[in-house]
Structure formats: structure tokens, C-alpha cells
Amino acid sequence: MDPPHPPQDNPTGEYRREFVLDSLAEGARWAMRFEGVDSHFTVWLNGTELGWATGSRLPVEFDATLALREGRNVLAVRVHQWSAGSYLEDQDMWWLSGIFRSVHLIERPAGGIGNHFVHADFDHRTGEGLLLVECDVPAVVDIPELGVTGLPVGEPHRIAHVEPWTAETPRLYVGTLRSEGETVTLSVGFRTVRIVYGMITVNGSPIRFRGVNRHEWHPETGRTLDLETMRADVLLPVQREPRRNPVPVRPQRTAGGWAFGEAEFTANGELVGLGELALVAPRLDLWRAPTDNDRDVHAQAQVWRELGLHRLVHRTVDCAVHGEQLVVDTVSQAAGQDGGIVGRWTWTAYDSGALELNLDLTPAGQLDTARGDSRQGDVLPQPATVPKLGIRLGLPGGAADVGWYGYGPGESYRDSRRAARLGRFHATVEELQTPYVRPQENGNRSGVREAAIRWADGQVLHVTAPTGIDLSLRPWTAVAMDTARHTSDLVPDGALWLTLDLAHHGLGSGSCGPDVLPQHRLHAHAATLTVRFHAGDVERTRASAPGN
Fold first, then answer.
1. Tell me: the pLDDT tens digits for 148-174?
2. How many other C-beta atoms are found inside a 10 Å radius of the C-beta of residue 428?
3. Which stretch of DSSP H or E encloses residue 432?
4. Is the peptide bond before 4 cis (omega within 30 degrees of 0)?
5. Nearest CA-CA partner of 21 in 109, 105, 135, 91
6. CA dihedral for 189, 195, 196, 199, sign (positive or negative)
7. What pTM, to 2 d.p., does this model score?
8. High-pLDDT (> 90) share of the chain, %
9. Residue 200 sits in the same domain as residue 233
């Protein structure tokens, strides 16, 4: 990131199109119009540079008159993905660069109308309209419904008793703008937008904006949209938004073995049992919904957000099969951040039907911010803490309960488990949650070595961890808890989200006392998570059911 300079590694595309023009009318001018190019481009016509432009969502016109010729013409365009404009246009969106809207060659008659602007103000006290039309060539305005005939451009004209334009009643008057060489149609709406004492008003009345951030995007056509898709996008915000359920990943038989999500195994059918639970693919998870203590004066939650730990992007670097093992290398980091976590996921299938995961995690880059540690009065940047270190995967929703061997019966964390004891416990998913007034991280069970999750239909998932892990199971994600303001805002999303963590950052008591003690702070470090899964049935669960 070096504003305003684009990166040296700048993907570039070159376009070339030949076209034939039968004749050139004398005195006419020609414009080459690009409706949208992302993000910087230069245009040549028949070897003559017409110019360059940036600003991906803005139409641009180049004067092609002198470079155009009768017969064969060659249009060439060079497009760079990144430019100074990228820093202004950067949003959370699909990046798909290139010429994504139409390109037109437009003939302009002599004396034709180019740039023009209609000013149509409304005085809500008198009902009077004020009309002023600007144009780059001499022209006159006609609006028959208002009795306006031959009004020269650039000349203001007051009109008594016009009907105003509002979003609820979009009243438009049809008129024309006439020059020596061309006539264009105008749609004129009278309105006045002002800011009065900090409030935006339209025609003297305060308004409230309700809308969504819209991007031109379609999963099949990219940034090229037809009118029906545009209409559907506009209508969508006024309809009830459907609940978005996670997409289950089921195993599929392939020529080489079994495909599980994006990974393919050559190990034998024992993977099928686990896959029948419709797992949402596991991924690295460093985020927890900040607690009241995380939001304290020491601002741990703010640091975590600055590091982008709530918006990690996961990339598969390599995937290879070694005998009965599948080895997947990944990198997880937030866009625009230097630091991240490198993961090696080694999956091993056993004849017993168990599937073991060994996940080796290694920090990469710098996981810190420009700030020092306020607790120590430091000025120099310090390695930042992370909320937790583990994985998250999605399971089928619905009624379920959990039996586990570890600390319980209530929630516990590394610096908050004096009230917990080691033993075998049982709880429903609902009983695992601690309903704090403000939704936040809760319901963790620490030191878990064995767990069995059982659904009402008899399906069971067994989880074992030889060294003990932190476990939570919720009908919503940590992101949903972070977004919610009250417990009533939390609505099950159709899945059960299982998190298996090596460690958590301590809770501390920063909202009313000391911050997390040094020995309970969690920093990114090299570590290995070992977990074994086995999909069983109700009979297996009954044979090994834990006591209360």
C-alpha cells in the first residue's frame, strides 16, 4: 500500500478490435464512448493515442474525429487493473477488471448537443419553479406543458405553481432541447435539496435515506448486467431478505477416491460417514465476538479489527495425496495486511472409520499495529494479541446435545475456570450458551478430550483430542454475535457451528478492573492442533454415553 502509486505487479490486458466505416459525413464529429473500464486505460485509434482515463464507474468519451477514417479502422485499448483511482474505489467487492460495459462509436452532427445540464429548483413556500438549462452549444428549451417555448439556454426562467418531484411522487415534465444540428428530449423534475441544521431536506422537508450498497455483479456474467437483473437488484431491498443458510459440503465419488469440498482423497469409503453429516468445510478461525472486557480502555477488540482478524481470506496454496494422507497447505490473512497464518492440514483416514486432522500453524509476516502497548506505556509497536487460535466447521442444524469429558458443567476460559471441575458432562446446545445481556463470546468448554454431538435423528459426531482443546457449539456464528446488540437479535441460521481451539486470549476484567494478565494473553505462535473425528450412530453413543 503506497498511495497514490499502484503496485509494480500490475495485471494488464490489451484489447484490439477492427471495424469498417463506410463513409464519413462532412462536418460531423465522432466520439468513442466507454461506459465502464476498470480501472485505468489508454486508447489508440489507427495508431493515434486518443487519451487515457481512470474512474471505473464513470463513462468517458474521446474525440475520435481526426483519427477516424473511411474503411478499415483499428481500435486498441490497454487496461491496467490497479491505478491511483483504486485507492478511492477500494471496497469489499468482487474484483473483476477490464472493459466491463459497452463501447460505442457515436456520430455527432454539426452543431449537435454535447454536454448539457438542467437546473430545476422548487420553492416549497410559494410553489414556484426556477428553470435554468446549460449547454455547450447555442440552443433553446421547450416544455409545452409549462408554457415554455424557445427559452434560450443559460437564461433563468421562473414558473408559477409547478408540481414538485419527490421519490414518492416522481413528477416529470417532458421537454426538448433544440440546437441547430440536433434535438434531444428532456425529463424535468423540480426539486431543491438542502442541508438545514445538519438535516438533509428535499423541497423543505427532512428525509431519511434507506438503501443498500449496490454493485454491478452477476455470478455468471460478472459485471455485465441485463435490464432484468438490474430491476431485480432494485426490487430486492424492498422485499424480505431470505435467510442465508450455509452450503453443506457432501462427499462425492471420483475416479481417484472421494472429493470432500475442494479436496480429493485417495483414502478408502471411511470418509463417507463423516461427510454424511453435511459438514461445511473446516477453516482457520482467529475471531471471537468481543467481550465487554475486550472493548475496554485497552482496546484489544479494536486492535483485532485493525488486523482484520474478523475478515480473514483463506487461500489454498497446495494440495497433494501421500498414501492414505491428504496434505493441504493454506494461507489465511486479511486483505491489505502483512501478517497472517500459514497452515498445513494433514488428513489421515483409518480403517476404524476415524478421520484425523493434524493442523500445523505458523505465523507469517507481522501481526502487529503501529501502536505500542498502553498497559506498559510502550511507544514502539508491540506484537498484537489474537482472540483465539483454532478451526470452525459447520454441522447440520436442529435439536442436538453434547456429552463431553473436560471442564464443566458451565463455561470456562484459561483465566476463568476456578468454578469448573474436570469430569464428564452433558448439555443441550441451548444449555451450552450463556445469555449475556449484550451478545459476546460465551459458552466455551475448556480442556475437552472427548465429545459426542448427537442429533435427534440418531446421527452422532465423535470428537477426540489427546491434549485437550477448547470447544463451543452454537446455532450462530461469532460474526452474528458480534453484530447483535441484544440476545433477541440472535437467530439460528440453520447450522450448528463447532469451534475447536488450541487456546483463547484470556477474559480479564478490563471493563471494571485489570486487563488480562500476561500469562493469559494469546499471541500468534507456531502450534499444532490434533483432532480425530468419527461419524457414528446412536448405538455407539449409548455404549459410551458420558455421565452427568
1. 999 999 999 999 999 999 888 899 999
2. 12
3. helix 429-432
4. yes
5. 105
6. positive
7. 0.53
8. 57
9. no
466 and 518 together in one domain? yes
Q: Which of 64, 85, 108 is the last residue of a domain?
A: 108
What is the pLDDT averaged over residues 483-495?
92
Angle made by CA atoms 7, 9, 14, in degrees to the nearest 5: 110
Q: Which three cell numbers stand for residue 62?
A: 474521446
- Residue 529: C-alpha distances to residues 101, 224, 404 (Å): 48, 44, 18
Residues 73 and 198 in one domain: no
- Residue 517 corresponds to which cell in the numbers above? 494478565
The predicted pLDDT at position 255 comes to 44
Average pLDDT over residues 195-220: 80
Contact 217, 223 (CB under 8 A): yes
The C-alpha R_g of the chain, in whole angstroms, comes to 32
- The x, y and z cell numbers of residue 430, run together, are 441451548
- Show the cell assigned to 72: 478499415
- Name the residue type at position 32: M
Same domain, 322 and 381: yes
Residue 335 lies in a domain: yes
Tell me how far apart the alpha carbons of residues 437 and 442 are, in angstroms, rounded to a whole number. Answer: 12
What's the number of CA atoms in the CB half-sphere (13 Å) around residue 59? 10
pLDDT 10s digits, 493-541: 999 999 999 999 999 888 888 889 999 999 999 999 999 999 876 544 4
| Residue 407 resides in a domain | yes
Element (H, E) at 540: helix 538-543
Tell me if 133 sits within 8 A of 116, measured CB to CB: yes
- Do 313 and 419 lie in one domain? The reply is yes
As for how many domains the chain has, the answer is 4
Q: Which domain holds residue 333?
A: 273-543
Outline where DSSP puts E strands in 429-459: 445-455
DSSP 241: P
